[in-house]
Amino acid sequence: MRQMHLVGFLQAQNCTNLASSWRHPESRTDFLSADYYQEIGRVLEAGKFDLGFFDDRLSMPDRYGSDHHHTIEHGIRCVKLDPVVVLTMMAAATRRLGLGSTASTTYFEPFHVARAFQTLDLMSEGRSAWNIVTSLNDGEAANMGHAEMMAHDARYDRADEFVEVVLGHWDSWEDDALIVDKSTGRFGDGDKVHRLDYRGRFLHSRGPFTVPRSPQGRPVMIQAGSSGRGKRFSARWAELVFVAYHDIASGQREYAEFKAMIAAAGRDPDHVKVATLCYPICAATKAEAEDRAALIETLPLEIDALSLLSEALNFDFATKGMDEPFSDAEMAGIQGLQAIRDRVVKNTGKKNPTVRDFITGSGRGRPRMDMVGGPKEVADKLEQWFTEGACDGFVISATHVPGSYSEFVQHVVPELQRRGIYRKDYSGPTLRDHLGLPRSTLGDWKPRLAAE
Q1: Secondary structure of the chain: what % helix, strand, coil (to 5)?
Q2: Which of 27, 237, 245, 395 could make an SS bond with 251 (beta carbons 3.0 to 4.6 A apart)?
Q3: Full-prediction pTM beyond 0.85?
Q4: Which residues are paired to 98 by β-bridges?
Q5: From CA 424, how far away is CA 47, in angstroms rounded?
Q6: CA–CA separation, 350 vs 194, rounded Å?
Q7: How do residues 396-427 score in pLDDT, each as one tens digit?
Q8: Contact status, residue 308 vs residue 364, Cβ threshold 8 Å
Q9: Comparing C-alpha atoms, which of 258, 205, 266, 199 is closest to residue 452?
Q10: What is the three-class DSSP state of 214?
Q11: Peptide bond into 402 cis (omega under 30)
């Protein structure tokens, strides 16, 4: 029977992706400690999650009012640790849980990304994954020494080359290149380590690469592009895709369309898993879960939404009155997460929404309250999405830490296992095993180039 995939959506910061989560009375506040993240890892592994995944941005959300004061005062994602370093601490406390992190193709160098994630893959014995992002706002550009953000499609054009370089380096070492024979003094076979010598429009990289192959061959590739260009990028490269479908009917349609795009790119759609974002609020009973949801609804502030919208859309919402419509030029000029803009237009029915419309129509800074209940109620909804062809699994977001994950593992996971749609144990040691993906072989990505 087809099995559901589960991903823990993590942040190496003072809150989850929900900025108000740190205000929850049960949230741990020692987010600067290794034990904080290791405990999350242990909980997710107990629940047999495929992986814990760290989202990341290279700036705090200081676009609103062009100032960081409000970000610090209200704890709006203002602490951001290096997620790859944090993952090494989680790796030490777990044995099977996959370990994924974001790294930007816009501001990092491909050799560095290739080395960091392949090293993590070796240190975790084949459990790492790289989330490919192109970065989205001027704050990140300023922190990384650039005057402004690259145009949307140009970022993806550069990202295509970036991925080719990373994959090329990961293919540099053949599986049996190492010999390490002290008696003969021969360390490796020089004919089985290859130099890349890549020269593209945006990037050059020579090699040879310095990290050998890992138990799963190379890290798993994650992507979450939601624009037309982003979806084409995902269809070409990704092995695990994060989406945010908003209802089953549209999810079914978009899921089918995306799987068709994967096939058109010359790839096997079964080897690309699609996981949609959700905020399950669960407890032993529906009544208890509803009480939890009532508390959680009191935590977000209006400033959370304004700050996070400014960050995600790369537009300073402080420059407009709450009930002032966006002009056609302003709507067209949004270069951040355009899917948020499009969702607001759809949800409000307004071609030129106001700031207030953006807050209500996007839901930014607030959890969706569409999955609240006891084990049966939450499992029913997850099963419906999964069995009716709207996704391959779920990215589980947390309203507080570690309680959201602990409650889900305690109450919902056993119910999913009882129904036979979720694993009772890991099928193998690597992340590719968890996802049902074959071990990577040298050059297995190259037909994708021909498909273009």
Answers
A1: 45, 15, 40
A2: 245
A3: yes
A4: 51
A5: 9
A6: 56
A7: 999 999 999 999 999 999 999 999 999 999 99
A8: yes
A9: 266
A10: strand
A11: yes
